[in-house]
Amino acid sequence: MQERVAQQQELSALAEAARARRSVDLFVRAGVGGLCWALLAAVCGKLLWDSLIPPLFFWPLVLLDLLLLWDAVRSYRDGRAHLHREVRLEARVRELRKAMGIDA
Fold first, then answer.
1. Where do the H-state alpha helices sit in 1-104?
2. 60 and 28 in contact (C-beta within 8 Å)?
3. Domain residues for 65?
4. pLDDT digit string, tens, across residues 38-91
5. What gap in Å lies between CA 17 and CA 93, rounded to an integer?
6. Residue 70 phi, psi (nearest 5)
7. Which of 24, 42, 55, 86 is most buried, by the most CB atoms less than 10 A from its CB?
8. Which secondary-structure segment (H or E) carries 101?
9. Does this model's pTM top 0.90?
């Protein structure tokens, strides 16, 4: 009986933790950042292609472009790490539900 109570407490704690899907937010941030990076890279490429000497605002744009790329890659890697944690959490929730006879 005490084991079942412990399982129910663990299940409720894991279910609460599984509701927070942080990986989705990180993947969206990575996608938007990647799109912004690609658009700004195209603008920088066009500026470089069309001018003999790059304008003064070219270098801050290049810096911003590199920061966007770095943020997109970092968000993607963090999203993958969160996704792996969420998958393990969900597997444990399923295992507990099966052991308790909820999903028989």
1. 2-19, 22-50, 58-100
2. no
3. 2-100
4. 999 999 999 999 988 989 999 999 999 999 999 999 999 999 999 999 899 888
5. 10
6. -60, -45
7. 86
8. none
9. no
